[in-house]
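ugh ok fine here u go
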Amino acid sequence: VIRTDLGAAMITIATVSPSVPVDFVPAFQKLYIFDGTNPIIETNAVTSTTLGGSAPADAKYGEFAYERMWTANIAAESTSRVRVSSYGSVSYYTVPADVAQQPDAPNLFDFQRDDGESINCFRFTPWGIVIGKRSSMHAIKGFNNATFRKVLISATVGCADDKLMTMHEGELWWLALDGFYSWAGAGPPVWRSRDIDSVVKDIRQTASNADFFAIDSQSDFNEGVLTASGTLAAMNTAITLGAVQPSTWGVVHTSSG
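structure:
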């Protein structure tokens, strides 16, 4: 993670996994970094440290709302879980036995834990915290343990990517498996991409080609070895496009008579 003011030299303030998305949450004049594999990183733009206390060890998403830190998709516990810190804290998450009688205490919420899906999207909105899974949308409304309540937004419309969820003209917009939807805080989600549904389907069909196969070398070509293609496939450095590669083969006749 790099800090820069576009004038001085860039400064490295934290190191994260290069293979997973990273989520950034500003809170209490500091920046908190989530990558879903390592403990939450706390930085003041000069130095960084691992967030201590009882903070989740590997939360994938974070939001700051109502003077609390909210974390979601916690692999060590459940990828369907949301944990919220105590009021005024970012590092204390131990839920008391009488949590309903302590408005400012930490809390946790599970969303369809046994449906086989993980939380993909997580966003603070004017109507509360919105949680998206592949096939369903949920929300936590309220501002403390005396008022928090879980709300099912949709049991059929889900969210595909946290980075493609944003507020726009007073509504929450996001990408689902079958197009773009919006929600205004009440009622069912609205299918916004209906008019371009044919284009969305074309894009999805194009993306489905990721399971085709590629040949990575001349020897693989000769031996019939195929490698799955896709964004993570090895780049071919042995075969030049348009080049003719020489090859030989022979046949031995073994029949008699």
